[in-house]
Write a structure and sequence with these properties.
This protein is 49% helix and 18% strand. With 422 residues, it is α/β, with parallel strands linked by helices. Strands 1, 2, 3, 6, 7, 8, 9 and 12 form an eight-stranded mixed beta sheet that branches. The chain has a two-stranded antiparallel sheet with strand order 4-5. A two-stranded antiparallel ribbon has the order 10-11. Helix 3 runs parallel beside helix 6 and helix 9 runs antiparallel to helix 11.
């Protein structure tokens, strides 16, 4: 009987190991000297002339370094390229309200950060980003200002108020009518629609889209910017309604985010003659499918080709801040990414690798085009993540997903302001 139980225990242990048991970080770095020959600082990133959208991924939502990279990369691109706008994986309407502070000094930086759409953005790092964009604009020459957008639509009730704000400029009666209706539709405390209000909301926003499109020339003549945001905001509200009953939530969300990015990109080109940077999780921005659904970046790459340039990110070691049943807590993980591991042999903690350049190295090319492990942590936690690495790792060749990557050897946790469990 003892032998039987020993066999069962051994078999179970082997099964767990095979599924990806967490045993710490392995010693699997690429040659440090070879890596160092191609590694660059973030301030040395270059993008091809044909790239109109530069996408920056983040391997986790819960680390300071990946939030800091949004500002580091954006500031560098503003200085060295025609990029003049940043679009976040955040609420369209909320980011539009934050943009009023960035462009017009309306409100405060703290109020702007609170509108970005997700609690994970309520951090010192995102405050620094918003303040930098605001301060840049205070000194920018005409036509050189920077702008902030959001391309997500989840529970984005600020988009509704973009509509009532627009109608207050054009039709006071409609402004009062829609404001009153909006007040009955939303349970803002719980970030949800009131029970049994979704069908009514869909009808209202379809009416608004029809009116805005029918009278587009007239409305745009009064205030083009307010009109454009109101119409796109109404469409985002309809996208959110679609998500409430979607059979494949993630699929529908990414399809709609791709459409929203294209709207932002076209607006930046047509109105400002500028390029765009977007920032979201690696899983959304990657130019190839890396999960069970077709992601936003795949759609953008399919349509835009070389106009879409993607920079992924990864950690080697991370202490990541994740939500739990009781709030948020910090957890330790290791990606086992051999490229990220190589950063440990260099002086700094953060380095960029351009894959087109690194492909000239036989050693690095072999790694970039191989299905190596990379880290991928979202906004959720499970105890399984403590013992099974495949719950937070993906194994797809980095060269299929990105044009280059930024590697953080050791990532530290964010601290979310006044986090509230939802």
């Amino acid at each position: 009987m003892k032998n039987k139980w020993k066999k069962i225990i051994c078999l179970g242990a082997a099964l767990i190991m095979g599924m990806g048991m967490l045993t710490g970080c392995g010693d699997n770095a690429v040659n440090a000297q070879e890596f160092a020959a191609y590694a660059k600082g973030v301030n040395e990133i270059t993008i091809p002339e044909e790239a109109g959208i530069v996408a920056l991924g983040e391997a986790t939502h819960g680390n300071k370094e990946f939030q800091e990279l949004k500002l580091d990369v954006f500031a560098h691109l503003v200085e060295t390229t025609d990029v003049r706008a940043l679009a976040l994986e955040g609420a369209f309407g909320g980011c539009a309200v934050a943009n009023r502070y960035i462009l017009y000094n309306d409100g405060t930086a703290e109020e702007a950060v609170a509108k970005l759409g997700f609690q994970i953005y309520r951090t010192d790092q995102m405050l620094e980003l918003v303040e930098w964009m605001h301060d840049y604009n205070m000194n920018a020459e005409e036509g050189e200002q920077v702008r902030l957008y959001g391309f997500d639509m989840q529970r984005d009730f600020e988009s509704a108020y973009l509509i009532s704000d627009f109608y207050s400029l054009t039709d006071a009666e409609k402004a009062m009518e829609y404001s009153a209706k909006f007040d009955t539709l939303f349970d803002e405390a719980n970030h949800a629609y009131e029970p049994d209000k979704i069908s009514e909301a869909e009808e209202i926003f379809n009416q608004i889209v029809a009116d805005l499109e029918e009278k587009g020339a007239e409305y745009a003549g009064i205030n083009e910017e307010a009109y454009a945001y109101a119409l796109q905001g109404a469409k985002c509200m309809l996208q959110d309604i679609e998500l409430q009953t979607a059979g494949n939530y993630s699929q529908i969300r990414d399809e709609n985010m791709a459409e929203n990015v294209k709207w932002i990109y076209e607006r930046e080109q047509e109105v400002y003659g500028a390029k765009l940077m977007i920032a979201g999780h690696n899983g959304h921005v990657a130019k190839a499918v890396s999960s069970a659904y077709t992601n936003m970046g795949f759609y953008l790459h399919e349509e835009l080709g070389e106009e879409y340039f993607v920079i992924g990110t990864d950690f080697y070691k991370t202490t990541c801040n994740l939500p739990t049943q009781d709030g948020r807590a910090d957890y330790d993980f290791c990606s086992d990414d051999p490229l990220a591991a190589a950063v440990g042999g260099l002086e700094g903690n953060v380095y960029y690798l351009d894959f087109a350049e690194a492909a000239t190295s036989t050693d690095l090319a072999g790694v970039i085009e191989k299905a190596i492990p990379t880290g991928s942590l979202g906004e959720s936690y499970s105890p399984l993540m403590e013992v099974m690495k495949n719950t937070y790792q993906i194994r797809i060749a980095p060269g299929e997903l990105y044009n280059g990557m930024i590697f953080v050897y050791e990532a530290t946790p964010i601290a979310v302001w006044d986090y509230q469990q939802q």
